[in-house]
Design brief:
Blueprint lengths: L8 H12 L3 E5 L5 E2 H17 L7 E5 L4 H11 L4 E4 L6 H11 L3 E4 L17 E4 L4 E5 L23 E7 L7 E6 H11 L10 E4 L6 H14 L2 E4 L6 H11 L3 E4 L1 H12 L7 H8 L1 H18 L6 E4 L6 H9 L4 E6 L6 E5 L17 E5 L8 E6 L6 E2 L3 H7 L6 E9 L5 E6 L4 E2 L5 E2 L1 H8 L5 E9 L2 E8 L1 H15 L6 H21 L10 E4 L14 H7 L2
Helix pairs in contact: 1-6, 2-3, 5-6, 14-15
Length: 558
């Protein structure tokens, strides 16, 4: 922290502009990036625009946009004048967006072209100004004769304090009702500055951004952090499908990336593992540890090339990484790193770089953060993770009751996660406290552990373990394309006995379900054995960090 005497977002940006003014800061892949000086000039112009619209310190300004350079310019333009930014996740429904705008009483909103339809019919009483983020043109306002001038400067000077509110972040999370997390300038700034201790970042580094900037994980670690280090950040104009992402990786050759477990798990199960499962012989070879390690090392080299060949840090956060996939990454010598945090903690609480990972651990507490295991079990050492530090939120907006539930009087934040700290102070997450299923004899059953086993069964895309009528049930979504492709050639042989292909496939799903149940029950303890497998035709509904919205399914089948 000693490099930064003032922990506010404008102070951090000002320091970077002085140090890295002519270096590239943000840009789209295939386009010339804006320099730090360009970024700051446009940030000033956005502040000047808001000033003309009558926005004053303390006003809330919403930001609903796909990732782009202007997202960050808008963000800093808002917070630099003491106004409060309200980032909205692009995948929020119209109802959720309406709730956020109403609850926050936002005065203005920056919105990208593709998301305009989501707010066309919304009429929150406080919202007076709508600004197109691509060119900062105003398409709806109560002000008169106001337009954007990219060379304009604010008429007033603004002083922002460390404890002033910078952002209210509404997260759908996995619990249903969105809450507005209040983060101060010091919360976000201290977390970005402390995160440098996990991995060295310099002005030659290149980030490729694929997660939504409106999520705290990408916002602090994938945006504010690289900016204070003089790195460049590159955005893609379309969703990161393989057809879009692969060319971008070749062009940018990123040195650092942030992602979520689902992405790398999908790559392993669809691109890597099938090469080792082609036939009985290759499956046998891959089952031998010495051979498997060599095969994984070869696959790791190819994977690094796919990501551009210069990757030194592949950050994984937002959910627990599957153990089998992590073993592959270790043996592949792929530069993965693990982090743990929550929106309420700005977000990072613990993290470790690729050189110091331990299997299934999120690493030690971040510099300046204190973690403790509350009411740790006498024999297991397991308990709820509590955190304290300058990154812990101010509270939930307009929700003092909810705030008191998670923040103790002496400043500890109750994360709601169960974990263990080992003798080297490395943290291991067991699962969400509210997700734990109590077995018939009072034992704790962690559904995430069972799901990890299920997800390594052939053709499984994703799964969810719930309790229904006192029994453990696995809800499973199979990769239907994969299954159909595998059994397509067999369909012709039995077509004379079946009217439709779908009948035949349903039989196959039944067979797979029975096989899956036996597979899982042979690999879990007696309390965690599943009673039934329910085949889900559609993908599960997920949060921004690709976690399944568990509450939707546990409520339905309780």
């Amino acid at each position: 922290m000693k490099d930064f005497s003032i922990l506010t977002l404008p102070a951090l940006l000002s320091s970077s502009v002085k140090k890295f003014g002519d270096l590239p800061a943000v840009g789209f892949v295939d386009e010339k990036p804006l320099t730090y000086s360009d970024f700051d000039r446009m940030r000033n112009a956005v502040t000047a625009l808001l000033e003309k619209l009558g926005i004053v310190p303390g006003d809330r300004v919403a930001l609903l946009s796909a990732n782009m350079p202007h997202w960050g310019i808008s963000y800093f333009g808002i917070v630099s004048m003491g106004a409060i930014v309200v980032p909205i996740l692009p995948d929020f429904s119209e109802t959720e967006i309406q709730n956020v705008l109403t609850h926050s009483a936002a005065s203005a909103i920056f919105v990208s072209q593709g998301l305009k339809p989501k707010i066309e019919k919304l009429k929150p009483g406080s919202l007076h100004h709508r600004i197109a983020i691509e060119d900062f043109s105003i398409y709806e306002t109560t002000a008169k004769k106001v337009s954007f001038d990219e060379n304009a400067k604010p008429e007033k000077s603004y002083t922002v304090g460390e404890d002033d509110l910078a952002a209210i972040i509404y997260t759908s999370g996995t619990t249903g009702k969105s809450k507005g997390v209040m983060l101060t300038h010091k919360n976000i700034s201290s977390n970005a500055v402390a995160s440098r201790s996990v991995q060295e970042i310099n002005s030659g580094d290149r980030f490729l951004s694929v997660l939504p900037l409106s999520h705290t994980y990408e916002n602090t670690i994938g945006f504010v952090l690289p900016l204070i280090c003089g790195a460049s950040i590159h955005y893609i104009k379309k969703p990161p499908t393989p057809a879009v992402l692969l060319p971008a990786l070749k062009k940018v050759r990123p040195t650092l990336m942030l992602t979520v477990p689902l992405i790398i798990e999908k790559i392993y199960r669809t691109k890597v593992l099938p090469n080792f499962q082609k036939n009985g012989f290759t499956r046998f070879l891959y089952s031998l540890p010495p051979v498997r390690k060599k095969l994984n090392a070869v696959a790791g080299k190819k994977l690094k090339e796919t990501f551009g060949g210069e990757l030194k840090f592949f950050g994984i956060g937002g959910a627990k990484l599957d153990k089998t996939v992590e073993k592959f990454l270790r043996e592949a010598k792929f530069p993965y790193a693990i982090g743990y945090g929550l929106t309420e903690t700005s977000p990072l609480l613990a993290g470790v770089n690729p050189k110091h990972t331990k299997l299934q651990s999120t690493g030690p507490p971040l510099e300046g953060v204190t973690l403790k295991i509350h009411e740790a079990g006498k024999f297991t050492g397991e308990g709820e993770i509590w955190a304290k530090g300058p990154n812990v939120m101010k509270g939930y907006y307009k929700e003092p009751g909810l705030t008191r539930e998670v923040l103790t009087e002496d400043g500890w934040f109750k994360t709601g996660d169960l974990g263990i700290l080992d003798d080297t102070n490395y943290l291991y997450i067991r699962g969400r406290k509210k997700n734990v299923i109590i077995g018939p004899s009072g034992e704790n059953i962690f559904p995430e552990d069972i799901e990890s086993v299920i997800n390594n069964f052939k053709h499984v895309a994703e799964s969810l373990v719930i309790q229904s009528k006192g029994k453990l049930v696995a809800m499973v979504h199979f990769n239907r394309e994969e299954v159909e492709s595998k059994y397509q050639h067999l369909k012709g042989e039995v077509s004379e006995y079946l009217e439709e292909k779908s009948d035949y496939l349903e039989e196959k799903y039944e067979e797979l379900s029975k096989e899956l149940r036996d597979y899982v029950n042979a690999r879990v303890n007696k309390f965690s054995k599943i009673h039934e497998v329910w085949v889900e035709k559609e993908e599960f509904v997920k949060t921004a960090t690709k976690k399944i919205k568990r509450f939707l399914y546990t409520k339905t089948h309780a």
